[in-house]
Amino acid sequence: MGCVRAHNEDACFTCVGDGVSLGVVCDGMGGANAGEVASQLAIDSFAQTLLQALSEPSDGGGNPPEEQLRYALERSNQSVYCYGWEHPECRGMGTTLVAALVLGSSAYILNVGDSRAYALRDCGIRQITQDHSLVAEMLRAGRITPEQARNHPRKNIITRALGTERQVNGDLFVHRLQSGERLLLCSDGLTNELTDGEIFELVQQGGPIKEGCQRLVDEALRRGARDNVTAVLMDLRDGAERQGRFFMDQYIGKYLDDRYEILEKIGEGGMAVVYKAKCHRLNRLVAVKILRPNMMLDDDIRRRFHTESQAVAMLSSPNIVSVYDVGQFEEADYIVMELIEGITLKEYMQKRGGVLDWREALHFTTQIMHALRHAHSRGIVHRDIKPQNIMVLRDGSVKVADFGIARIMDSQKTLTTEAFGSVHYVSPEQAKGLSVDARSDIKTAAGVLDEMRTGQLPFDGGPPVSIGLALI
User: Fold this and answer.
1) d(CA 34, CA 41)
2) Is 174 exposed, middle or buried (0-12, 13-18, 19+ CB in 10 A)?
3) Cβ neighbours, 10 Å, residue 328
4) N or C: where does the chain have the smaller number of CB atoms within 10 Å of the terminal CB?
5) Could you tell me how far CA 32 lies from the centroid of its own chain?
6) pTM score, two decimals?
7) Which residues pair with 328 in a beta bridge?
8) For residue 401, what pLDDT is reported?
9) Sheet holding 398-400, edge to edge
């Protein structure tokens, strides 16, 4: 985090596998909340899509890494773009992205925006990517000098970003790794404060790779960094694939209320992060959903978060994710829930090729309807039934999750913003902003059933706003 901004719009991801290393850095834009949402959504979608593609067995005829990277970029762009349309307060948000996929002796580098990738060897440092910014274009055209570019008043204007348009074009480089080489991925918060030469000198001071990352960020902060600073350093010397990064999660390793030990992050969305945790009082594993600290400033988002805990606390069904506890830690609200070992129905459908046979579709739909019948009997309307909010467990059972925009019937306990639901599944009366009841959930559940059988979204045909207008 920088010395000027009170919130962090950067995000990063690293992963090391058997012969594969992946590093990603994103720098969000669009305001305090929107920038953080954009960068994290982009990271989540990009990494999940790419790692899933890499993990699938191949008989030698699989897609080349370049195509897999571009597909992951496309999916990531779609995630950010659609989220922005579905959430008015986030419209126009976007993010930069730089990623390095290392396979054997080759590094596949992808970038959009002005976050950078560098190659470092004992003999020096070289920037692999090209900035997509107004100042970079002026520099390449010879209209300004490097010295003028470094302090140019318009250097923060980027010409490409992920999530701002329906399509995005990223640059892809194939870098043949040399002996003793390292790769550095970083946001412009680092390169705004340090020259390439200074970056090289700090990394070359030796020691563990994480210390090299730490030195870079510490020096940028010492100089009064005006922007968030994130760096991922990938050490490839002597065939090693080690990664260091400076972007520490603020909750992992901590205890909430001296009871819940946060173990690892297992998921996240626009307004909250979900962690795997251990309840030491009852000696069991749980899921803890923590509202992002910067989201605490938005009363509507806080109300949505509390609506979820309040709604689910009223329910007790084997087909609904249970809530155990609610609380607050360091001014951030959290919900303690049942830990689900499974995947979303959307992911399950993708693994099955997008279409399920009628027996399986009926099996899942029956359980979804059991959950909704119970919720409706308690006066709760879910209002966001979709495959992404339905969990499929290993034994084939189903649990409905995410009551974040639920409505308590015969009550005013509902949201006025972010209550639209997911446009591809929303009922017409909900799209029109009218009052909804149990029939709205039944309508959207029917749409989920239709998607399971056909592989097609219930409503489609362009940007989310166009679909919403068509429904109206």
Assistant:
1) 10
2) exposed
3) 13
4) C
5) 16
6) 0.54
7) 333
8) 87
9) 342-344, 390-393, 398-400
The tens digit of pLDDT for each residue in 54-81 reads 766 544 445 788 999 999 999 999 999 9
- How confident is the model over 300-314, as pLDDT tens digits? 667 767 766 777 778
pLDDT at 267 over 70: yes
Give the CB-side neighbour count of residue 182, counting CA atoms within 13 A. Answer: 26
Contact 40, 265 (CB under 8 A): no
